[in-house]
Design a protein that fits this description.
It is a single chain. The protein is mostly helical and about 550 residues long. It is about 85% helix and about 0% strand. It contains 23 helices and no strands. The radius of gyration is 46 Å and the shape is elongated.
Length: about 550
C-alpha cells in the first residue's frame, strides 16, 4: 500500500505542474513524465496521455529540434506500452518511426535507446537473431557516448539474448562486461541474477548459490527487503535442487520474513507455495498443508486488490480526460489572436523563402558554370594522357618487333648451318621444309589469320580442296593441323608453329580421328588422300 501511495503522490505532483505550465515545451515534457509514471499501473491511461502529446505537436505544427526529439520519445513510449500488451506489430512500427526521427536529427542518445528497445521487442518474441543485431548496434553507439550505466544495460540484455538462445558461454562474457561497468550495488545485483541463472542452467549449482549469496549481502547492505526476499527464494530453489532441504528451509524462512516486512503480497504467494512443496518433500505433510492454506489466502487477496486497482485506474483516466477538456477550452479562447499572428508569420516566411530561392538559383548557376569549366579542363587533360599512352605503346611495340626479328634471324642462320651439315639428301629436304614452314609461321603470327590461310593454300592447294569438299565436319583449326601434317611435321614442331602445347596438338588429332571414325593406328593423311582417289574413280 505504501508503494501505491508513493506512486499516487508523484502522479499528483506532476499533474499540478502540468496545470500551471506556461508553455507547451514544459507541458509536453511533464506529460511524458506523467505517462511514464502512470504506465506502472495503468497503460491505457498512459497511452492516452502520450497520444495527446503527439496530437499537440501535430496540431500546432512544431518542427524544431526539441519537438522532434519529444515526438520520437513519445513514439518510444507507445512502443513500450505495445510491447507490454503483446502488440508486437504496433510496437515495432512505433520504434522504427522513432528511430527515423532520431536519425534525422542526429540524436545519438535517442538512436541508442531506440535500438535497445527494438532488441527488447524481438527478444520478447524469441527472435534472438534480430534482438542480437539491435543490441549490438545499440552497444556500438553507447560505447562512443561513454554512458557507462546505459551501456551496461545493453550488455546485460545482449547477455540475456544469448542465455535464452542457450549460448551460455557468450551470455557469461557479456554479463561479466556488464558487471564490470555497473557503478551501483543494485546494478551489480541485477547482473548477478543473470549470472546465477546461467550457472544453474550449466549445472554449476554451487556457483549459482555463491552468486545468490553475494546478492543477499548487497540487498542487506542497501536494506532492499523486496529484492532480499526474492533472492532468498531463488537460493532456496537451488538448495532444493541439490536435495539440501534444511538449507533451503532456512532461506525460505528468511524470504518470508523480508516479504512480510515489506508487505510484498505477490512474493508471499510464491513463497508459501514453495515452502509447501518443500515440506512435502521433507515428508512434513501437516506443515505442508498449513503453508498451502496460507498460500490460498494470499492468492485470493491479490485478486481482490487487482480489482480495486482497476477501479482506481479508471477514475484517474476520467480525471485526466476532464483536465484535458478544460485545457482545450482555454486553447480555443486564444485561437483568433494566434491566427492573426500566424498569418503575419506566414507572410514574413514567404517573403524570406522567395529571397532565399532566388539566391539559391543564382548560386546554382554559378556552380554549374564552374563545374562545366572543370569538366572541359579534365577532358583536355585526359586526351593528352591518352595520346601519351598511345605513343608509348607504339614505341614499345616497335622495340619488341625489332627484337623478335633479330631473334628469328639468329635462329634461322643456326638452322641453315645445321641443315648444310646433313649428308642424307632426304633428311636435308625435310629439314628445309620444316625451316620454310617455321619462317612462314613466324611471318603469319605477325599478320592476320587470313594471311596464314593463304599460306596453307599455297603449300597444299589440292589437299585443302579435299578437306573443304569431302570433310565439312572438320573445323578450321583441325584443317590447319592436317595441312601441317602433310609437311611431315611432328606434334612438337606443330605446337611451336601454333604457339601451343604438344598435348593440345595430340588432343586435336584425337578429335579428328574420332570425327573420321579412324583408330589410333590408321594414317590420317593417307585416308584423306584416298578420298581424292575415290573422286577420280567416280569421274
Amino acid at each position: 500500500m505504501g508503494y501505491s501511495q508513493t506512486q499516487d503522490s508523484i502522479t499528483t505532483t506532476i499533474l499540478q505542474k502540468i496545470r500551471t505550465a506556461t508553455n507547451d515545451s514544459v507541458k509536453i515534457d511533464l506529460e511524458l513524465q506523467l505517462a511514464e509514471r502512470t504506465g506502472l499501473f495503468d497503460i491505457d491511461t498512459s497511452r492516452t496521455i502520450v497520444n495527446n502529446v503527439l496530437e499537440t505537436i501535430k496540431h500546432k505544427g512544431y518542427q524544431s529540434y526539441y519537438y522532434k526529439q519529444q515526438k520520437a520519445n513519445a513514439l518510444n513510449s507507445l512502443g513500450m506500452f505495445d510491447s507490454q500488451q503483446d502488440k508486437a506489430d504496433k510496437a515495432l512500427s512505433h520504434y522504427l518511426r522513432a528511430l527515423d526521427i532520431f536519425e534525422t536529427i542526429q540524436d545519438s542518445t535517442g538512436i541508442g535507446s531506440t535500438l535497445h528497445n527494438l532488441g527488447m521487442c524481438y527478444s520478447a518474441h524469441d527472435d534472438y537473431t534480430k534482438s542480437e543485431h539491435y543490441f549490438r548496434n545499440a552497444i556500438a553507439i553507447k560505447e562512443l557516448l561513454k554512458d557507462v550505466n546505459d551501456l551496461a544495460g545493453s550488455y546485460q540484455m545482449l547477455a540475456n539474448t544469448f542465455y535464452y538462445n542457450k549460448q551460455n558461454d557468450s551470455a557469461l562474457i557479456y554479463t561479466n562486461k556488464a558487471k564490470a561497468l555497473m557503478t551501483s550495488k543494485l546494478g551489480v545485483a541485477t547482473v548477478n541474477a543473470t549470472i546465477a541463472g546461467i550457472h544453474y542452467s550449466n549445472g554449476a549449482l554451487d556457483k549459482a548459490i555463491d552468486i545468490y549469496k553475494e546478492n543477499i549481502a548487497i540487498f542487506k547492505a542497501v536494506n532492499d527487503q523486496k529484492e532480499l526476499g526474492t533472492c532468498h527464494s531463488n537460493t532456496a530453489f537451488v538448495y532444493t535442487a541439490l536435495n539440501k532441504y534444511d538449507e533451503a528451509s532456512v532461506h525460505l524462512d528468511s524470504a518470508i520474513f523480508s516479504a512480510k516486512k515489506q508487505k510484498y503480497i505477490e512474493l508471499l504467494v510464491v513463497l508459501y507455495r514453495q515452502r509447501s512443496n518443500l515440506n512435502s518433500k521433507r515428508k512434513k505433510y501437516a506443515e505442508a498443508l498449513e503453508d498451502y492454506k496460507i498460500y490460498k489466502t494470499y492468492f485470493d487477496s491479490i485478486n481482490d486488490t487487482k480489482k480495486a486497482k482497476r477501479i482506481t485506474a479508471l477514475e484517474l483516466n476520467h480525471k485526466f480526460e476532464k483536465e484535458k477538456l478544460a485545457d482545450q477550452l482555454v486553447l480555443e479562447s486564444e485561437t483568433s489572436k494566434r491566427e492573426l499572428y500566424f498569418l503575419l508569420f506566414i507572410l514574413t516566411f514567404l517573403s524570406g523563402a522567395i529571397i532565399l530561392l532566388l539566391y539559391r538559383k543564382n548560386a546554382k548557376n554559378r556552380l554549374r558554370l564552374s563545374k562545366s569549366k572543370l569538366e572541359r579542363e579534365q577532358l583536355k587533360k585526359l586526351k593528352t594522357e591518352l595520346a601519351l599512352m598511345t605513343r608509348e605503346k607504339e614505341l614499345t611495340r616497335a622495340v619488341v618487333e625489332n627484337s623478335l626479328r633479330q631473334e628469328v634471324l639468329h635462329k634461322t642462320l643456326g638452322s641453315v648451318k645445321d641443315i648444310i651439315g646433313l649428308e642424307n639428301h632426304q633428311k636435308r629436304n625435310n629439314a628445309l621444309q620444316t625451316l620454310w614452314a617455321t619462317l612462314l609461321s613466324e611471318k603469319t603470327n605477325k599478320t592476320t589469320s587470313e594471311s596464314f590461310q593463304t599460306y596453307l593454300d599455297k603449300v597444299s592447294m589440292d589437299f585443302k580442296v579435299i578437306l573443304n569438299t569431302k570433310f565439312p565436319e572438320l573445323n578450321e583449326k583441325e584443317k590447319e593441323i592436317l595441312c601441317f601434317m602433310t609437311l611431315d611435321l611432328k606434334a612438337t614442331q606443330i605446337s611451336e608453329l601454333q604457339n601451343t602445347t604438344v598435348s593440345a596438338i595430340k588432343s586435336t588429332r584425337h578429335r579428328i580421328r574420332k570425327k573420321l571414325n579412324l583408330d589410333s593406328k590408321a594414317d590420317i593423311i593417307a585416308f584423306i588422300m584416298s578420298a581424292k582417289d575415290v573422286n577420280k574413280e567416280a569421274i
